[in-house]
Amino acid sequence: MVTTDLFENNEKIDAFVFTDESNRFYFTRLETSFGAVVIGKERNVFITDFRYESEAREKVSDFEIVITGYAGFYDKIAEVLASMNAKHVGYGEKMYIDEFNAFKRALSAFKLRPAEDVVSAKRAVKTDEEISFMATAQQIAEGALKRAVSKIKAGITERELMAEINYGMILGGAEKYSFETIVAFGANSAQPHHHPSDKKLDKNELILVDMGAKYNGYCSDMTRTFCIGSPDRQLVDVYGIVLEAQEYAIKNIKAGMTCHDVDSLAREYIAANGYGDNFGHSFGHGVGVDIHEDPRVGTNSETVLKPGMVITAEPGIYVPGLGGVRIEDILVVKEDGVIDITSYDKKLVI
To answer: Using an 8 Å Cβ cutoff, are 23 and 17 in contact?
Structure first.
């Protein structure tokens, strides 16, 4: 993992410290519940405890391994920083208040500067290896959904379908799920983040599934909306609008655009078709180690897309009391367009 680029445009920072789980994994490729990465201009140090010592020494390259316990954790960070002759320290801001207070006390000899935006910007642009992990995660998720769809029939509950999908992802090689799988039937699909319930599927109801697998620490994300039978006529029209909005946006996204402009591609199309008030969330978001990362692809985001960023394309229309449609793919941004690493079909009636 190359880390020296963190110091580009941040020459006044002598070292960085990141203590949250996602950033630890990003730099070390080791999933741990405790520790910190300290990144200097000439050396990197991974601080953890005895539970991860042997695995860290075996698997974590480009980092010196330092073992400590909870009691001396922040003092050990200070000790490592002092050994680097650091004076100005950039730090990740994802800490509980009590942790941050202890962090500040132990590092009182250093000038601390918030630097979460620095690592977020680095994480936003994926390497080919990271993209390959996400593509594999997506393939696993798609295989799981295909398997689960074959078991759908009237009377199955949202929870039962969720369980089938989750089992399929694990069976297919996922380490875990990217997030809590969403399954919504009928009018429940009008709730964008519905929690699966014991509601049973009735014939002709919409089925909305939002799911993702995690592979080698990287997430996938996909939503499909479909029906077994004959869906409501209005929802057929809504589905067509959402699909056309997504396809139009995907066709026109490329590096150099602002995320606001990307969002507008789909939002303006949906509004022009009379459903502007029914699309209440952003067009998409970055995906990587976490299911939601930079860039944020919404109305207030002026972030400029760069080649290698991975974003979702997930427009939706939600009609309370009737149902909702969301279609989501995962895209790799290129100079002149995007690569869609989602291949699952988009048929409404299956």
So the answer is: no
